[in-house]
Amino acid sequence: xxxxxxxxxxxxxxxxxxxxxxxxxxxxxxxxxxxxxxxxxxxxxxxxxxxxxxxxxxxxxxxxxxxxxxxxxxxxxxxxxxxxxxxxxxxxxxxxxxxxxxxxxxxxxxxxxxxxxxxxxxxxxxxxxxxxxxxxxxxxxxxxxxxxxxxxxxxxxxxxxxxxxxxxxxxxxxxxxxxxxxxxxxxxxxxxxxxxxxxxxxxxxxxxxxxxxxxxxxxxxxxxxxxxxxxxxxxxxxxxxxxxxxxxxxxxxxxxxxxxxxxxxxxxxxxxxxxxxxxxxxxxxxxxxxxxxxxxxxxxxxxxxxxxxxxxxxxxxxxxxxxxxxxxxxxxxxxxxxxxxxxxxxxxxxxxxxxxxxxxxxxxxxxxxxxxxxxxxxxxxxxxxxxxxxxxxxxxxxxxxxxxxxxxxxxxxxxxxxxxxxxxxxxxxxxxxxxxxxxxxxxxxxxxxxxxxxxxxxxxxxxxxxxxxxxxxxxxxxxxxxxxxxxxxxxxxxxxxxxxxxxxxxxxxxxxxxxxxxxxxxxxxxxxxxxxxxxxxxxxxxxxxxxxxxxxxxxxxxxxxxxxxxxxxxxxxxxxx
Length: 577
Prior knowledge:
This protein has 577 residues and is an alpha/beta fold. Helix content is 64%, strand content 11%.
């Protein structure tokens, strides 16, 4: 996973090609400025100490130091800025691609994913890339150029010191390689632990009411404490290894610089070397190792990013239906919806739909009923474009529905699920979810048609009242009526409903049923029915069984003749999901 993560990270560098190119130009310039700074300082010290030079003699050289200092500061600042820009570009690109990928994969394929795991990858996983592009890559670029420039300056002055630098420089990558394998394994394990912890915490928050009702919340505190403590130990283990790496690198660097200082000192005492060159080389020695040390320290950021990159790549590499090329996004649809020999299976050997043949006429209210597993939800997913048929085709008029025009088609169909999700926003923003530019009059008309205007006016701030995530602060019936208004405000010719009155009290159910009855004939309605009230008012009832149509007709006709529909009625139960 780690090697795959490193390979994936390298591929992302193309997104930040421009700032990285500028960094490659700045790296040798930084080395040149370091050499110039050391030469000027060595000249001033040598002149004042051994050449009896006065202030006037060295003043021009000291003044020359000022622009060198400023240029070096500017180069360092610009390098940091370019690293930040490279990181920002990559994070924005990866985050956009991740969201686009999840949108194309769709809610059906993500149904079994843990939302906390996905959230951790999208937030913490993308942010983990920052250390790689903002610190590690700039450190690597600087290491590849600045030490080489310094070596070119050291060798003419003192070939022995240059030889020491060449021999000791490989110790940094060698030591990184030796301990890198164990460190990367620990980083990978820590990242997986973080995603599991995020998933668990989100699950606890979402089910807190249930846990409190069953007196399980206090017990969960011990589980959270145990998980947090395990993650703390894991984090400290990784940090311990990172600090050990830094300490060993510092040790090798200190020994190397001391070795150079000893060699220079002995030759100065023997008169074999001029003070200027000895001091010049001694000033450059720490500067030579500085990029190497920084690169070794930032290697921990690379390992952390590689662990996260493997998780991000696993999302981006998931298979999906052919994506829209954008040509069909403004396409219009007219006519009946026709399903011809539609087959679909979630997994091999278990077909949810098997040769389904159906037709929905404009202006018609059709109720889809059947036992659990009959294929009703799969039919809804197909009509919404969340999945594509394995075989067969779906037509709207003469236009074939597919991945290429699913975006345009969803603009023509309104979706009202059993339990609509309201977002942490105002009531009006929740209603405008699919039509952000809808006027206030349209919002009020939709709310009134959904029997929602009465309770909205009674809220503290009316349409501007803030709603909690998941509709917190509203009853189930109120949330559902806002969801209906959200579908109506778009003015779509087709409505797809998964029995919005299910799980509601009788009054809320009556109001919603009344809304749908008034819409009948004005909108084309496809209703996945679980309650008989909706079935009774439908123009046509379609009974599914084992992924096929087994009966069609009006309620009165189907209830009087023998068949699956009558069997459900005689069993004395509601039509189950």
